[in-house]
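User: Here's a protein and a ligand (FE2/S2 (inorganic) cluster). What would the complex look like?
Assistant: Let me lay out the input and then the predicted complex.
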Amino acid sequence: MPQVTLTVNGKQHTVTVEGRTLLVELLREKIGLTGTHVGCDTSQCGACVVHVNGVSAKSCTMLAMQADGANVTTIEGLAAADGTLHPMQEMFREHHALQCGFCTPGMVMSAIDLVNSHPQGLTEKEIREGLEGNLCRCTGYHNIVKAIAAAAPLMHAK
Amino acid sequence: MPFEGIGASVRRKEDVRFLSGRGNYTDDINRPGQLYAVMRRSDRPHAKILGIDTAAASAAPGVVAIFTGADMAKEEIGGLPCGWQIHNKDGSPMAEPPHPVLAVGKVRHVGDPVAVVIADTKQQARDAAELISIDYQDLPSVSSTPDALATGAPLVHDEVPGNLCYDWHIGDKAVVDGVFAKAAHVVKLDLVNNRLVPNAMEPRAAIGDFDTSSGDYTLYTTSQNPHVIRLLMGAFVLHIPENKLRVVAPDVGGGFGSKIYHYAEEAIVTWASAKVRRPVKWTADRSESFMSDAHGRDHVSTAEMAVDADGKFLGLRIHTLANMGAYLSTFAPCVPTYLYATLLAGVYTTPVIYCEVKAVFTHTVPVDAYRGAGRPEATFLLERLVDCIAHDTGIDRVELRRKNFIAADAFPYQTPVALEYDSGDYQTTLRVALENSDYAGFEARRAEAAKRGKLRGIGVSTYLEACGIAPSAVVGSLGARAGLYEVANIRVHPTGSVTVFTGTHSHGQGHETTLAQLVCDQLGVPLSQVDVVHGDTAKIPFGMGTYGSRSLAVGGSAMVKAMDKIIAKGKKIAAHLMEASVEDIEFANNTFTVAGTDKSKTLTDISLAAYVPHNYPIDVLEPGLDETAFYDPKNFTFPGGCHVAEVEIDPETGVTEVINFTAVDDVGRVVNPMIVEGQIQGGVAQGIGQALLEAAIYDKSGQLMSGSMMDYTMPRADNLPNFNVATENTMCTHNPLGSKGCGEVGAIGSPPAIMNAVIDALKQFGVRHIDMPATGPKLWSIIHAGQAKMAAE
Ligand code: FES
Ligand code: FES
């Protein structure tokens, strides 16, 4: 069976997978990072979003083998070593942008990429459109949009 | 100490865990030696099972076992029980056909589980499930609600003639008919409440873990009420006594009702883990959720209001057909009856009401409570009907509502449909909502939109619901097979920190924070020293779980009661330590004082004495500071309010944009305003989803057309506006907190507000009613037909 070597949250892993193993299965089942979630089977919900080489990707829609050699960041890898939250995590908490927490990892990972790719800042409309690939059933998005708007300047200030 | 008690928007204690990927959802749990279960489900709506050949599948790599309905039947495994019995008009009980865990003899809906494959990996189980060959004889099916009662309709259960589960009614038909005969106006409306798929973002999952040394079973499951699952599965399905069965509902990723019910997969993995003597895990794929999670709504109704010449409502007459699906889900029968018809007075003084409800079986996924459960159906019907009365009589829709409101000084108010409302102030919530939405300035905005080629409309809904479920004796007399009290255990530890064990369950509501705030408030313990534990039958004394917006009103009240006991015991200890009489001890701000003196002891002094009872009234008082209370509510609670929606429709596409949404709700005492606003926002989003986007659609052949997130339109961030949410509260008069509940109001009040706005936007085309969802193509057709007609005139 094929082997994949990849870096996840700064740590290198070499894992044996099947050809059909998905990146999300590798993360959750092979290396035990269960923060990345699976909410659908049609690439619709974004609960599985991680960063692959710094860019957001739906890990349910990517084969583990496609991540060979890649640098992957998951929700577990965002906070500083001392536990200090990333500004996006902090603003999600501050603005009550999560309820059940199931969509949250994917939402946060997507939101960070959205902010990173808009150094000039984001309008509310751009935030809402930028979340097209992420579903949340709990919050109605109102507070998620607020949290992202609040995190953007904090992230750019860094 | 910062203010963290009742009324503080403290940030949630659970968030750091969820935000850093350290939540503990069922699918995150892996037990040593665990195997994986995959269900083989029916792809037919209705068929006889002539044979099941598992030979090839059994020989596939990694397969450990395969079980079918016949294997379970051999061991006398019971069917899935129904928790509520409705009686027909003639007093006879409803039809209650068996609901086998795995299909026996027949399949009755697409998704009905036929066999389970257990293998070393999920992939192996999935591959093998496809190798099972099932010999079906297809039978004709019926999926639409009205068709189920047609003569000659295919029968879902041979023993249920005419597919009629029950024929129930409330009210005096002759009296109501008499009122109609004399009324100045009779306004009639036919309407459909669309079938929905709850779609909590976490798919259901279950792990059965049989301990071969002790003979104990543990079930980890995505449930809103682990004790209820233990009771139903243990007592009725698998015959396992409570002491040998532990049910854990860890972090649960949303429920909205769909995770209340006892599902087949829970029984299957629990039973199978003893058979294979290893843990067995099942996790639903989303497409599996669509065909196996209970759906919601699905009513077809005719509503009529008798109205006098001034617009006063004189009488209401309703006929409703409610779809139960193929089998009775746990609480299905009570939804279109006691959670629906009893709400038909709404916020109005309508003196007489008659409602008859026929519940039918169809070859579809079972239907049960989904956020609001019956109350959204009642509210949509009433609030659409009121707008139709305004349309037909020419009376202004807001005036018409005001004229018929129950007055703020009329409480307690006995409705003609069984409920007694304790408090409310509908004029105020309406007035504030109209102010907050600048209702008065709307016509200018409509005109401005028209200049841009957009059709703008505004809609109002004034609603009420019943939650805080429920007084046990009352619901028992109405057919509930369970009590609906709640339980709290408050443990003050030796050094004064507190653990709360609650029978309610949080799957997004934030109980770890809100319930801890109650302890800050009553015992004066800082939030950081209070932990809330829920979701494990091995830790919690008992509990009925979370649904019907009950956690604070019922579960919080149980906590208050338990903390009252803590304080009462603490006073006795304090009296002993301070050599005073118990009557002179006062408790406030974490401190016991002797009235009129400066003598005091902190709660920590008392708890330490309680656990290290060296100087202690040991002859008359047990050591320890740990109290449990059961709280059975005295009545339902009655949140209500006013929602105002403002929409713009693009005539080129028919697509509706929600421009503004204003909610002013009365939810009683608010413990954490931030969380309450979040609950209302989320509920409104689901209501807007129902109104504009969502529909579970079966085709004529019984296939679920909207069976994935590609086909079922979930609301996304760019479908929704920012919400303008506020509360104007009157206190619940019969529970110690005054809280009414806020989990469902958003989903109850919003659909008719949206639809009234859509219809208002289209009024130039003579539109009187549109059924939900008001999708782009549907509205485009209406607009274009209307434009063509106007051009022709
Ligand atoms: S799990 Fe839904 S998009 Fe990946
Ligand atoms: S917080 Fe529950 S799905 Fe988003």
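Summary: The mean pLDDT of chain B is 97.
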